[in-house]
Amino acid sequence: MAKAVCAVVAVADPELVVIGGGIGPAEGFLDAVARDVRRISPVLPELRVSALGAYAVVDGCLAAGVERAWEIVVERLPQP
User: Fold this and answer.
1) Is residue 68 scored above 90 in pLDDT?
2) Given CA atoms 46, 51, 54, 60 in this order, what sign does their dihedral have?
3) How many helices and strands, by DSSP H and E, does the chain display?
């Protein structure tokens, strides 16, 4: 994970990196990533755990599906 964060830092220079998924909130994980990134990267952005939790991808897929379904419904409405 630290190598992935360093790659993002090297390419995009973000101020914030959000660690998500089921592993993000694991006890000690964020501290371990920060320690490793500090060791191999000249810049350490702020690191945070996603507030969306382990189901962020599922929630995002559902939201995208609902949005697309709404677009299809609206496209099929009779035009005034």
Assistant:
1) yes
2) negative
3) 3, 2
